[in-house]
Write a structure and sequence with these properties.
Blueprint (H helix, E strand, L loop, with lengths): L1 H14 L6 E5 L4 H13 L4 E4 L6 H15 L5 E7 L4 H16 L5 E8 L2 H6 L14 H10 L10 H6 L4 H14 L4 E2 L1 H10 L2
Parallel strand pairs: 1-2, 1-3, 3-4
Antiparallel strand pairs: 4-5
């Protein structure tokens, strides 16, 4: 009986649909990559890869890495491009043009844009408070960091232990990000949308 039970269990598992393969491409070489890497470990997402872009940095490197992944890895289902606005109006405009074109291509993985304005630290701030205060085009990220340090005075970029401590506040951040999106385009962040997508895979 036990042998037949194990056999049925293996057969049941083999019939399950495989989880989609997702690539998270982070423009940031450190902070965002560590954050999503920690989420991957926490949620045990073996079908998710988290990578910085190629050696060409900035938004050019991000789009190049996404194009290369699309062409060279036919097994990918989704590519999520994570970037900061950080006052780079023209560069972000060009990225949006690229993303619009990439999204219309037939075949290959779905490509999603995850933009934080002014920067990733705005997403972290939303774990502690809701705000849509305007941030300067130049220096907006530093302003977001200062506000975040009112809640966590020893915040340092790329601190894995800090990211892990936010687990219980994640729903608050998602709700605040959705509320900010309804209030207007800036400030804002799409990080919550990606976090929710990863949760679906658990």
């Amino acid at each position: 009986m036990a042998r037949r039970y194990r056999s049925r269990t293996r057969a049941h598992r083999s019939r399950r649909s495989p989880k989609p393969r997702i690539l998270v491409l982070c423009e940031g070489q450190k902070t965002e990559r560590i954050y999503f890497g920690a989420l991957k470990v926490e949620m045990r997402l073996s079908s998710v890869s988290v990578q910085p872009p190629s050696k060409v940095r900035g938004l050019r490197g991000l789009t190049k890495a996404a194009d290369e992944a699309r062409l060279n890895d036919p097994g990918l289902d989704e590519i999520w491009c994570v970037l900061d606005h950080d006052g780079r109006e023209e560069e972000v405009r060009q990225f949006r043009v690229w993303h619009e074109r990439a999204s219309k291509r037939r075949g290959g993985p779905r490509i999603e844009a995850v933009i934080s304005d002014p920067c990733f630290e705005y997403w972290l701030l939303l774990h502690f408070e809701y705000t849509t205060r305007p941030f300067d085009n130049v220096g907006g990220c530093e302003q977001a960091v200062r506000l975040l340090r009112r809640h966590v005075n020893d915040y340092r970029k790329g601190d894995r232990r800090f990211f892990e401590s936010l687990r219980g506040l994640r729903d608050t951040a998602i709700a605040n990000a959705e509320k900010a999106a309804r209030a207007g385009p800036s400030p804002g962040t799409d990080i919550g949308r990606l976090v929710q997508r990863l949760r679906e895979l658990v």
